[in-house]
Each structure stands twice: as structure tokens, then as C-alpha cells.
């Protein structure tokens, strides 16, 4: 028995890679891709002796995305206003995805209503070539309680009125709206850049619980897009790290401090480093919300901030962006001399690239597994634990008899 294609746009939308395959087959295919990649840098003995621990599937295959960023445009030139996702391989064409199965069903209902509303009002989308128009994006975030934060993004000079708010509030959702926002963005880049954010109704944040900790998520905070998968990922990270009682831990590229706070109850001290100021502020607020006094967060580039930290770490956790760790920063990280490094990679190719440098620096991979954070789509995350090898002093024992000295 096979699953039906992910949605009516499957094959045309760039989001999903798998459609008809059962989830077990998806995982098997992803695992083989990852093994082929990692075998370029790790010897076969590593995989044969139990250090490789397989791939973990997402606890939820469908409806697992807690954030979707939809674009306004049209499906074909001069066609009607469309709100949806980019067509595969196209910068301009937008596909409607009302029955997308990786997002909550409420997201499709909201998109349909917003698209119909602006079609009726004849409000134009912002054309990427002429830079004329108003509508840019609709960003939807949800938590596991079914609360939804809706954020309409337009150019400045346009403010949706009460009629738009009422439209959303009257939708027959399975969950419920907790906030409706409007963001002004005049950037030429096709990205959501918040120049001014106005709360039209309700709250300007969501809260989510992960492994018993509460996190306040702002409209532009980084948070793993698959919450059940994130619990699996962070739980595995905590298992790999093991006992850290009395230890100082660095959480590098810490984002909103999720990993730091998961580790804090078991550690002496956790120091997070993150370059995005808003994320650092959110991390500090969340640590206070969870009553974690042994967490501190520094804002800046890891390469520079490492020079300012005086505490010596026993454990370093790295969860870098897709491009991986800056080579110079990696050398500084290794010079800190932590017994163990935990490397979490959303782009495993970056981790594979860094393995030779880590091994030259004395860190040998001890455990490795993959976690599928993106069911139905391409890619997965990798977690590797590396331990610093003890320095071995090579010597030769020579026995000399007294009569030989004569």
C-alpha cells in the first residue's frame, strides 16, 4: 500500500521530493545518500563497529511544519493573483498549494481566504522586475496547541484594515489565531526583512514547549520547523553529551538558545554564542522564562567572541548554519581543548567537509546518526560526537647491561 502524492502540486512545487513512496522507503533512500556522503571521510571500520547508529524518522510525517512562508505572485504571466509556493526551478511563478500535506490544514484554509480577499480587492502583488505593487508574503507559524500567528508582509504605505482582521478571525479553523501582524518590507531582496512590524490583533508571539521547557517564539525568531522532530534531535543530542554535571559547556551558533537550555539543568554553566541580536535577546528571555540562571548568551561572531570567553569548556556544542563552521573559527574551537565536541549539522555535507580538519586537530568521531527533520522533502540533519584523543608519547625501551658499558 502506498501513500498518495503529497498534494495536487506535487512534482511542480519545489517543496517535496517524495510523494508515492511509503515513509520507510523515504528514510532508506535518505540514509543511503548520507552513508555515501560520510563514507568519503570515515573508514569502513567506523560503520562496522557500531559507532554509526542509523537514521531516525520524524515522529510526524504530515502536518509537521510549524512555519510556512507563502509568496504573492501569479502562476503564469498576467494570470490572477496567487498566494502559494514557488514553482520548482522558477523565480517568478507561484503555485497555489491549498492541500499541502506537510503544513497544518489550517494554513491552506487561511491562504485560500487571503488570496480570495485580495483578488476581490484587486490589490496587486509586488512584481520582482518592476518593483511595482504591494503584496509580498504571508508567513504563518503554529504551535502544537493549534495556535497560529499570521503575518502579512507588504511594502510600506499599505495597512490592512479591520475587514482583513475580521476575515481571518471568522475562518472555521481547527486551531485558533493568537495574533495577526503586518510587516512592512521595502527591500529589493525576495526575503522577509522586517522594517516595521504592527500588531493588528492579539499577540505578537507564540509559545511552544520542547522537552519540558517553554520557548517564546517571535515572528522572526529561528525555531526548528518540525517541533516533534526537534524534540527527537535535541533528545539525541542530550544522550550523546551524557553526564555533564559540574561541566562548562559552549553552545556555539546557539540561535534562540534551545540546545543551551536543554543542557543547562545538567551542567554547571552553559555559554551560548550567536551573531543575530534578536535571537540572543530571545534566548535570554526564554532562559529567564524557564528559570535557568546558569545560561548566558553573547552576541557576536563565534570567531571573535571565543577570544572574550575565559571559562574553559569540557564540552562544546556546534549547530552552525548551512555553510558550516568558518575554518579559522574551527581552529579556535579545537584549541579550546574540550574533551568532546558535538556537531549538529542541518547540511551534512558541511560536517563531512570539516571532519578531516577535526581529525587532524585530534578529534575522532565516536558516534553518528541522522535525524529526518524534513519528511517528504530532501535532506536530513546529522549529529556527530567527537572525542579528543589522549596524547600518546611514543618511546622505545632499551635495556643496557652493565657489562656492555665496559
In short:
Helix content is 27%, strand content 26%. The chain is built from eleven helices and 17 strands.
Cross-sheet strand order for the largest sheet = 1-16-17-15-14-11-12-13
Total domain count: 2
In the CATH scheme, the class of the largest domain would be: Alpha Beta
Which structural class should the secondary elements be placed in?
alpha/beta
- How much of the polypeptide forms β-strand, as a percent range? 25-35%
Please summarize the sheet with the most strands: 8 strands, mixed
Uncertain residue segments: 392-406
Give the fraction of residues assigned to helices: 25-40%
Shape: globular
Global Rg: 25 Å
Task: Note the total helix count.
Answer: 11
CATH architecture of the largest domain: 3-Layer(aba) Sandwich
Amino acid at each position: 500500500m502506498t501513500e498518495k502524492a503529497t498534494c495536487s502540486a506535487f512534482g511542480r512545487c519545489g517543496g517535496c521530493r517524495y510523494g508515492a513512496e511509503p515513509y520507510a522507503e523515504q528514510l532508506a533512500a535518505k540514509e543511503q545518500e548520507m552513508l555515501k556522503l560520510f563514507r568519503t571521510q570515515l573508514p569502513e571500520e567506523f560503520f562496522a563497529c557500531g559507532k554509526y547508529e542509523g537514521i531516525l524518522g520524524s515522529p510526524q510525517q504530515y502536518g509537521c511544519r510549524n512555519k510556512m512562508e507563502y509568496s504573492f505572485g501569479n502562476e503564469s504571466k498576467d494570470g490572477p493573483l496567487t498566494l502559494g509556493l514557488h514553482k520548482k526551478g522558477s523565480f517568478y511563478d507561484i503555485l497555489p498549494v491549498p492541500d499541502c500535506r506537510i503544513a497544518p490544514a489550517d494554513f491552506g484554509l487561511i491562504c485560500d481566504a487571503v488570496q480570495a480577499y485580495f483578488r476581490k480587492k484587486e490589490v496587486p502583488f509586488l512584481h520582482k522586475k518592476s518593483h511595482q505593487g504591494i503584496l509580498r508574503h504571508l508567513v504563518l507559524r503554529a504551535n502544537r496547541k493549534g495556535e497560529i500567528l499570521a503575518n502579512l508582509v507588504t511594502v510600506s504605505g499599505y495597512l490592512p484594515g479591520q475587514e482583513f482582521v475580521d476575515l481571518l478571525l471568522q475562518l472555521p479553523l481547527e486551531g485558533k489565531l493568537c495574533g495577526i501582524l503586518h510587516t512592512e518590507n521595502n527591500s529589493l531582496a525576495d526575503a522577509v526583512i522586517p522594517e516595521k512590524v504592527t500588531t493588528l490583533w492579539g499577540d505578537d508571539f507564540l509559545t511552544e514547549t520542547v522537552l519540558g521547557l517553554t520557548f517564546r517564539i517571535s515572528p522572526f525568531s529561528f525555531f526548528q520547523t518540525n517541533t516533534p522532530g526537534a524534540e527527537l534531535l535535541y533528545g539525541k543530542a542530550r544522550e550523546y553529551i551524557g553526564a555533564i554535571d559540574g561541566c562548562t559547556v559552549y553552545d556555539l551558533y546557539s540561535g534562540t538558545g534551545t540546545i543551551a537550555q536543554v543542557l543547562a539543568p545538567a551542567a554547571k554553566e552553559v555559554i551560548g554564542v550567536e551573531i543575530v541580536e534578536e535571537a540572543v535577546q530571545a534566548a535570554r528571555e526564554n532562559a529567564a522564562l524557564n528559570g535557568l540562571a546558569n545560561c548566558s548568551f553573547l552576541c557576536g561572531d563565534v570567531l571573535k567572541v571565543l577570544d572574550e570567553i575565559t571559562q574553559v569548556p569540557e564540552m562544546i556544542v556546534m549547530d552552525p548554519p548551512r555553510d558550516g563552521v568558518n575554518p579559522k573559527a574551527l581552529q579556535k574551537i579545537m584549541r579550546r581543548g574540550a574533551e568532546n565536541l558535538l556537531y549538529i549539522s542541518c547540511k551534512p555535507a558541511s560536517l563531512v567537509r570539516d571532519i578531516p580538519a577535526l581529525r587532524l586537530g585530534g578529534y575522532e568521531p565516536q558516534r553518528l546518526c541522522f535525524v529526518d527533520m524534513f519528511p517528504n522533502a530532501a535532506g536530513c540533519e546529522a549529529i556527530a560526537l567527537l572525542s579528543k584523543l589522549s596524547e600518546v608519547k611514543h618511546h622505545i625501551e632499551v635495556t643496557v647491561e652493565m657489562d656492555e658499558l665496559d
